[in-house]
Amino acid sequence: MDSPKIEDETAQQQQQQNTKTCSNIEKVSKIPDLVLPRMKKMDADASPLLGIDEVFKKRWQVQGLIGKGGYGEIYLASDTKRGEEVAIKVEPKIRRGKLAKRMILEQKALMKMQGKPHVPRLYASGYTENLNFIIMQLLSINIGEIRKSSPCRKLSKSTTGRILHQTIDALHDMHQFGYIHRDVKPANMCFGIGETNRHTLILLDFGLIRRYKKENGEFRSLRSKAGFRGTHRYVSVRVHSKLEQSSTDDIISLLYTGYELMIGELPWKSLERGDEIKKLKQAMQNNEEKVGNNKNYFENSQLIGFAKLVFSLDPTIDPPYSKLQDELKILIGNKKMDDPYDWEDDFKEAIEENDINDNSSK
């Protein structure tokens, strides 16, 4: 049985599209092809959760696989009633002999937060005999993939600053609902691909969310020890230590995200062991000398003010969201949130900044 379907006529009008790419994904003319979701090859040995051309729930015709992870798959589909593309996220109902709960939590959180600008629009959700599913707004490829599309594999200061600024708004909304995300990273950030939402960042993947506040807004009692949740590359030192996560840990993950987008990689990129990653993160947090010639992790990045504020946050209270955004003004400069981003201008600004940094380091 399906949960109630959510449809928003006004929001769906924002998805009106007027041109077609070679991959069959409809888009408005101002959206660069490189940020549109791409069909992925099916693994010959794998059993896909949905079949190509299958009409899921008698309405959504599956066109192809556009995403796959350890917990499920994401498909591009066409709404046969409305004639627009959507994303179908599915996961097996039973995993390792147990009822899968990730998507159930995600469904509930998405339904609660509908109407917020940085949350994907939810069209339907529920379950079948074998699958849990969410049908939602089709979005761009994720920010991590966009960064890798840049010739210098970096984003400019102004684009990075605006991404961080919008993500703080997204986290503020989520925290007000009493949830923490626990997996903030570039792979969980996208942009809209409609005329009116192409400059709006959308925070994705609520499979690891946790309620950290009571219904009255008070913080829940902290557990002395908590299981590891998140992605090693982006979690805070506290999470490495298996301490209870709070809203500040989401912000620390956002700082690491910003560093990677603007610098091109994190200092611990090549490390696999959690204890080694934690050690480098502690060095960054304590502003210790980095191995090599760079004596400051944030040298020349203009992230230093933001980083100092982030690392000073008290995990027992919510972060000062507006102050955090104020620290990003030096990055954003005179750009507005709806001004073109790097991928709309062939990454020219990112390339120029990279060339300047390369010349200054010689």
TrEMBL record:
Leading EC class: transferase
Renumbered residue ranges of the record's region Disordered: 1-22
Residues that bind ATP: 89
Short name of any one Pfam family annotated for the protein: Pkinase
EC code: 2.7.11.1
SUPFAM superfamilies attached to this UniProt entry: Protein kinase-like (PK-like)
Keywords: ATP-binding, Kinase, Nucleotide-binding, Serine/threonine-protein kinase, Transferase
Annotated SMART domains: S_TKc
Single GO term (MF): protein serine/threonine kinase activity
Transmembrane segments: none
Top-rank taxon: Eukaryota
Domain Protein kinase, chain residue ranges per copy: 60-331
InterPro entries reported in the protein's UniProt record: CK1_Ser-Thr_kinase, Kinase-like_dom_sf, Prot_kinase_dom, Protein_kinase_ATP_BS, Ser/Thr_kinase_AS
UniProt entry tagged with the keyword Nucleotide-binding: yes
Stated family: Belongs to the protein kinase superfamily.
PANTHER family for the chain: CASEIN KINASE-RELATED (PTHR11909)
Listed name of the protein: non-specific serine/threonine protein kinase
